[in-house]
Amino acid sequence: PPASETSPVEFDSAISYVNKIKNRFLDHPEIYRAFLEILHTYQKEQLEVKESRGSRGSSGMTEDEVFSKVASLFKGQEDLLAEFGQFLPDA
Amino acid sequence: SYDFTPLDSSAVYVLSSMARRRRASQS
Hints:
- Chain A is mostly helical.
- Helix content of chain A is 66%, strand content 0%.
- Chain A is built from 4 helices and no strands.
- Chain B is rod-shaped and about 35 Å long.
- The termini of chain B are far apart.
């Protein structure tokens, strides 16, 4: 598929990954919510950067920062973290 | 079954966009 479009494979793996996390942390919904919050913040900052076109010299939350936040959240859940790394560009 | 809230869907969207950019940067 063209690089500008999300392929069904990418969408499906994202869906099953989100489901996996949701199920893994059924007893700790606050961890799952924190994970959603990290992704939400990342997306929001990316949009803000796009809108300001970097004029303020800010690049928003980087993927490295997202990864380290998720890493501290998923402590002891190495499989989830490894899988998360597969979604990140230049991981 | 997939019982997704809007927040869940937004996480799916963010993850699949990341994966798309990863593919774009690799090709």
